[in-house]
Amino acid sequence: MEPIMLYDTTLRDGTQGENISFTAKEKIQIAQRLDDFGIHYIEGGWPGSNPRDMEFFELAKKTEFKHTRITAFGSTRKPGIDPADDPNLQALIKAETPAVAIFGKTWDLHVEQVINTTLEENLAMIFESVEFLKNNNREVIYDAEHFFDGHKDNPDYALQTLMAAIDAGAGFIVLCDTNGGSLPSEIVSIMKTVRQSLCEKFDTTADALPFKFGIHTHNDSGMAVANSIEAVDCGAVMVQGTINGYGERCGNADLTSIIPILQLKMNRQCVTSENMAKLKPLSRFVSETANMIPLNSRPFVGKSAFAHKGGIHVNAIMKVSRAYEHMKPDLVGNKRRVLVSDLSGKSNIEYKAKELDIELNTNGFDSRKIVSEIKRMEQEGYQFDVADGSFKILLEKFTDQFNPLFELKSFRVAIEKDADRPCSAHATIKISVDGKDEITAAEGDGPVSALDNALRKALYQFYPELENMRLIDYKVRVIDGRAGTAARVRVLIESRDQDHIWSTIGVSEDIIEASWHALADSVQYKLAMGNS
User: What's the predicted TM-score (pTM) here?
Assistant: First the structure.
């Protein structure tokens, strides 16, 4: 079977997602990672729309790409003008990319009520724009915008728009579910109808058509991945999408799901097996660059994608992994995680101890005693299934294998407020490292921020590797509100460095003390990684 061409639009469509923005240099960095992964086409942006995208294409000219074809994106010419006089088409040529993707109107509603032109003029816009780009030696990918909605309303005209692009020489005809409202059954029905109609027009078989089909879906009905997969079954050989499904409204089709489904479950070659194992690191790199917290439940690459909590499940996967896993996690660069909670059994503890390279029974504290202690602590408000970092430290303490890389002597936090200024926080901390005491003070936006800054400041001279660690999430939860202000609180902190993400927990009646426990565990965990 023909291999699938992967077309990534993270750098263009993905940036239309809420709270997502990349600088031109960040886009180049992402493009290089996508190229290393084996993406065939990378849509870099719309050069006619903003200076940042034009800067990206200027940088791309100076960047070596081993595998991918950098692609500029734009629209057909405007009504009533010659393609050579259209600024957007000129910007596409100026970008000097080997491939160009342009979209045209397929839905008669858009033609007559949005861009306010005639159906005949729209066909001319499509044909002349594709022809202009072909005459300038560009590979042309034609995106039939709103194709499925257009076909539902006026199938004859939707087909005419495709023929205009095909007759002008477009190499790929990409059918777009731009509003994201189509169902898989509709994708199948329309694609079969269209393919049959075009085969009849050209009096040939689908394999001999003078173009190839592609698919571009949005996730407004939660169907983007399913619709893309169905389209491939119906003959599409180019799949467009974004890393992590980033995009406008509910996002685009998520390539981190589509790629392993196609290659590992459908036997449709996309990338090498070696590169497939880079999928989770690629997902994390894009989320880090976008400053977006990774979605734990994201299929294949999420932190929880291969996580097991129930004792019966863990007991089974220790014997036969496929009893509760649909595939091997390392195929996509992920790993199995066993969670520990009050639902855990001995199997969970023994698995985690082996995973963390911690020997049990060193002091009589076997897995049964540890399970019992974990359940007692969870009754008090701890939640270790979401705090792997703290659990590792706890397990080391239980078995007398914990080697603290710093010790707290004392801390003091002060908050000041007057009528004219917002609250300010100051923290003073005294720690000991290898018997040497260090006293440091720092300010912060709040008491926990001040405490975090003071701890880092005190430790930097001993552990400069803390420079690349940062806190990315901080959550506080009152465990039982009936006690009022004396209620116990649970603090969860998520931290990351260049390669890892970990979570830690603290519980106390005092929110600052709970925060300190979570913060201290986070730093201890980071330092232990560098000393293991």
Answer: 0.75
